[in-house]
Amino acid sequence: MSEYRSLLRILSATVCDTWVDYNGHMGDYAYGIVFSDAATAYMDRIGIDEAYRAETAATLYTLDSRIGFLKECHVGEVLHVDTLVLAADAKRLHLFMRLINAAGDELALCEQVLMHVSRADGKPRSASLPGPSLERLMADLKAHSTMERPAWLSQRIGLSRG
Fold it and tell me: How many domains does the chain have?
């Protein structure tokens, strides 16, 4: 993908010692934390922030997520998550995120599908995004619509034959 400079820089974080596992580098669970935090940062960007969630009892739920691990991350390393909106409709969004270090090395990739859910009646139910949030989401989708889709998205998980 040649247009990484056009992706949204949605989150920056530093690898903390609690993210490091028995192998001496960031554990797989910690990549999940970083990408989950990045999804929350994107929610904030489009107005599904803490105040909205408290006032409406609505939020985004993760329907599907996949992480590809490329390189190790170590304590103290500065990480950035860049985001691309791949698709969206009135209730759902499909995101691609890449985790890079300060040098720009790709460390991990993540794909997520999220859905707007209301719990206002006590049970979680899909619900349309509020107008301003949908407008922001669609503006990001439009801005990203001409960008090349990362080849990683077409790869399936599994064992190669050979």
Answer: 1
Q: Is residue 161 part of a domain?
A: no
Average pLDDT, the chain: 95
Write out the residue range of the structural domain in which residue 46 sits: 4-146
- Region 22-50: mean pLDDT is 97
Spatial neighbors of 149 by CB under 8 A, at least 6 apart, are 1, 86, 96
Q: What's 130's domain CATH number?
A: 3.10.129.10
What are the Cα distances from residue 33, in Å, to 18, 25, 29?
A: 12, 15, 6
The three-point CA angle 133-91-87 to 5° equals 85
Q: Is residue 159 part of a domain?
A: no
What's the pLDDT tens digit per position in 80-105? 999 999 999 999 999 999 999 999 99
